[in-house]
Amino acid sequence: MNKKVIAVLLSLAIFATACGSGTPQTVEVTRVVEVTKVVVATAAAPAATVAPAATAAAPAPAGFGETLKKVKARGKLVCGVNDQVPGFGFLDKGTGAFTGFDVDFCKALAAAVFGDATKVEYRAVTAAQRFPALQSGEIDVLIRNTTRNLTRDTDNTGNFVSTTFYDGQGIMVPTKLKVAKLADLKGATICVQTGTTTGPNLAEYMAANKVDYKPLVVDTADAAIAAYEAGRCDAFTTDKSGLSARISTLKTPADTVILDLTLSKEPLGPMVRHGDDQWFDIMQWTVFTTILAEEFGITSANVADVKAKDARPEVKRLTGADANAKMGAKLGLGDDFAFNIIKQVGNYAEIYDRNLGPKTKTAIPRGLNNLYTNGGLLYAPPFN
User: What confidence tens digit (pLDDT) does each residue in 26-37 have?
Assistant: First the structure.
């Protein structure tokens, strides 16, 4: 029972006693009042909704952005290429001009970075020189018919980006030797180039098939061809694309045949240094841009019209027509970087046909180098 009720009952009891005595009495009633502190509980107003702070970007690893900064400050890209393989990387000594499939990807990278595909210095490197040149910073990127494998992906402080050409190692022989099968090369001398995967691949393949042979190791592709034409070796082995390219330079191309066998897988593609993920991404999406452009039917001839009229969201992002997408900014480039690649160099099919297509001396069927929609291996992630 609380204090207030007790006080009221006590007052009534005193009053009743006074009335019952028959004698009028003055009764002083002390009113007991309990003062209860009333606390008004006011619900606290909800705190103003504060937008969560943007998640801080992870700190960039050491070296991030350094390559792009250096390239822009220099005002040109330095691209390590071959100068002895027609169709891929070849130097015309008469004009001093470099041409080829790999050379065009150097141009595409320059178009992405500068908006100008001509801002490239081509640095010819041999098979043995290429990795040290990349490691030392002598070149910004290596685009020189280079095969990707685990050892190269780890031991050379470099990263391969997406494969630009799927190939396989082959062997070419003079038709006069009448080589019909691998066993016919027993005891033959075979030219191989130092600093390449071809020597180890050949050794493993011949050992597995129990065919003895004699390797003749040379420094360059030109030296290999010279030895082959001089009869110092009975056969020459390298990537099939390289064989096709070099046959076109022989004095009598019809006197040589490429055997119908494949010794290995040879995925070829650009390589950049470890430690600069921004530069890796730029090179990666330069390659992907050429593949996506072919997939969407965008060419150097129609890209401006497509940018102005095509309503497909991904195409608008690719061409830079969607001003809100800011895709280039994600790479540290202008938002027209992909447009510039396509406009100035072309899509993958244009690059391929210009250097390796049926109207060239090299004339290599696309095969695995078709889009995935045409039964090939070329597949680019979405541009979003």
Answer: 434 344 444 444
Overall residue count recorded for the chain in this entry: 384
Picking from 369, 141, 375, the residue whose alpha carbon sits closest to that of residue 244 is 369
**Distance in angstroms (rounded) separating the CA atoms of residues 144 and 126:** 9
User: Is the CB of residue 98 less than 8 Å from the CB of residue 89?
Assistant: yes
Residues whose CB is less than 8 angstroms from the CB of residue 228 and which lie 6 or more positions away in sequence, other chains included:
172, 191, 235, 236
Residue carrying the six token digits 């169709």: 87
CA atoms within 13 A on the CB side of 173: 19
Joined together, the tokens standing for residue 328 give: 């280039």
Please name which of 248, 285, 255 lies closest in space to residue 270, comparing C-alpha atoms. Answer: 285
**Separation between Cα atoms, residue 268 and residue 139, nearest integer Å:** 18
8 A C-beta contact, residue 199 and residue 239 = no
- C-alpha pair distances (Å), 333 with each of 64, 102, 275, 304, 355: 14, 22, 19, 19, 28
Model's pTM, two decimal places? 0.81
CA distance 326 to 153: 31
